[in-house]
Each structure stands twice: as structure tokens, then as C-alpha cells.
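BUG: 3D viewer hangs when loading the predicted structure for this chain

Environment: internal workstation, default settings.
Expected: structure renders.
Actual: progress bar stalls at 90%.

Input used:
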Amino acid sequence: MSKGTKKNILVVGSGIIGLCSASYLLKDGHSVTIVERDPLGDSASCGNAGAIAATEIVPFALPGLWKDVPGWLLDPLGPLSLRLTYLPKFLPWLYLFLKSSSHQQVEKTASAMSAYLKNAFDDYAPLLGEAGLQSLLKTEGSLTVYKSEKGREKDSYYWDLTRRNGIEAHNLSRSEILEREPQLGELAKCGVYTPRWGHFANPADLIKGLAEQFTRNGGTYITDELEHIEHQDSHPASARTKGGQNIAFDQLVVCAGAWSARLAKKLGDHFPLDTERGYNTTLPTPGVSLNNMVLFAEDKFVATPMSMGLRIGGAVEFAGIEAEPNYKRCDALLTLAKNYMPNLNGTGGTKWMGRRPSTPDSAPVISQSSHHSNVHYAFGHGHLGITGGAVTGRSIADLVAGRPTDFDLTPFRIDRFN
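C-alpha cells produced before the viewer hung:
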């Protein structure tokens, strides 16, 4: 098909990446169908911290990070957990993760992510406006707190790299922290304020609202699970679902979150995707009130004020996709949170676990297939799914239309680890 021609497009997955991609493709005049096996079910888009973290350009794998890993694993309240039975499957991803932590690679990734997230807020504006969801977005900035000046100094390379890539970040004293967050306890000794940050008051309402607007605009939403891809003339041409539906398409967009690599493999594209299982608890009557989204740097968790209460979340657990949740991780996070907020009421909370699709270098996949010109991938956003949702969606629409994107997609190719 020539550029500008209306296409039949199948989008697999209706998390934030799938919905934003489908919405921007509809704006281009295409006929778009979403297939999703479990709307609002175990989607990482619905239960997360809700951040548009446009300042989070630095990859998780930093030089020297490996020195901290043993201590985290030995700490029952630590930010990292690895189930030993999963270790053999995890090692190849871990190798690439450590390889990505070189100084040169980290600098390149931060630069690429800065260009990628430059329009994180702007690209949401038309989607939120059309769906009437503007009131969900709060743009108060974020506060990162430290237990000591020494702790903040340990992160000096992180903040230097952030600022060198054009991100505004202001160091705060103890008194300046209390001006912003008077209910933080004595443990919050100093911090950093980043203005270019926002969050959604309820991520599930965002997903639901975008899905409803997608169907109002003429999109087709099928609740079913993709089972098989049929080829014609060596190119993918139709999909069969477990429910027996056959969906013909001109273009296929894979946005299936943690399950994306499995589908990509069937299409000939191999990518080292793993799953960071994140946990949180939403407290309906927390007893404390926060004005900003607060990140607790040394203990690696966040607190987000939301419409339904205060959400305490974080932690990284590697155990694969199928393993049962370990909700003791939620309890550990609440214990940590009470150290910083002594008046926190931790009762009556709703516990949640989500599967973050994570790449070794912390950069998502936004890419045409290596083998099929009519297949595109959008997955692997890790902690930045909400953050990069609209940017990725617009970029996928540009790729399908043959338009140039406004940032270099080379660092986001699916074959970059081959």
C-alpha cells in the first residue's frame, strides 16, 4: 500500500501503549482493531504509580550498580528480589543488563531517552482533550528525598547526567522539603525537586477513558486472546483468536507488554525481554496527605497521592510471568513508608502486583520488524509505560505512515542486541 492509504491495522494489547498507538492510528484515518485478552485485568498500566516521569532518562543499569545488588538481595525489605528457581532463565538478561551499564552505553541511552521523552506531555494533550480526561493529570512535579547528604552525593552522577541532558532539577534542604511536604518525618533530610513531572490521579480511569474514546471514534475492540498468525506471500496477513475469530490486517502492531517477546519470536524477531514484577498498596485512609509524588531514593519506592487514596509502590522482583505474587513485598514497602511518614495508616489497603516489561538497557522497543515490513513493535517500557505512552503511540503512527519521527529510533530497534 502507498503512503497515506487507509489500512486495516490490528493492535495486540490495550495497555497504555496499545491504546495510545491505536488512538493515533485512528487519527490518521486507518481502520483499527484492538485485540486484548483481559481488559483492566493484570495490566501494568492500571495499577502503577501513574507517573509521567519525563525526567527519568537515566537507565537503571548504572556503572557500579552491581556492587549494590548482593546487599539488596540479602535485605528482606530491599528493593530487589530474585526467586532462585528463576535464576537460570534470568542469567542471559542479567548479562546484557550488566553489559549495558558501561559508562559509554549509559551516556548514549540517557541522550536517546531525553530525545524520546521530550514531548511526553505534549503528545498526551490531544488524547486527553478528546476523551475529556484532562482533570486526571496533575503536574505538580516530583520530590526525591534522601536520608542524608551522603546519600544524595552517592547519586551525583545520576543527577549530573540528568541535568546535562536538559532536565531541570533543584537541590532542596530539610526546611525546603518541609515547605513542600510538611508531613514527611525526620528521615527525609534533603532532596531534589524536578518540575517536569506529573501523574494521573487514577491510571485505571485513564485506561478506561481512552478505551471508550477509541470505540467512540470508530475503533473496534475485541476481548479475546491471539492464538496464531497466518501468513500470505511470506508476510503476516491475519490473526486467529482462541475464540475462533479471524482478523485480516494490512499492518500488525504488537503492544502486548510482558508477553510481547513471545509473539515477536513467533514472527522471527528475538528480543531479550524480562519481567520486573512491581508491587504496591493503595491506602484509602492514609492519615497523611502529600502534595507531590514523592520518590524515596535510598529505599527505592514511591508514594503517589491519588483520587482513591495514597499509593505506596515500588520494588523489583524477577520471577518470570507465571509465578504467583508474593504480597509480602507490599508489606515490606509499607514498613519502609512508615519510617518516612510516622502517621501513615496502613490498614484497609488494596494490594496489587503488575508485570513491567523490561529491557536490559531500560530503553523500550519502538521498531519495525526485522523480517516483515508490515509488523511494528511497541513494548518494553519498564517503569515508563504511562510516561512514554503517547510518544510511542504517535511514533508508531509515524512509522506506519512512512513519516519521519522527531527523534532517532535507532536506539529503540528490536534487533539492537543481535
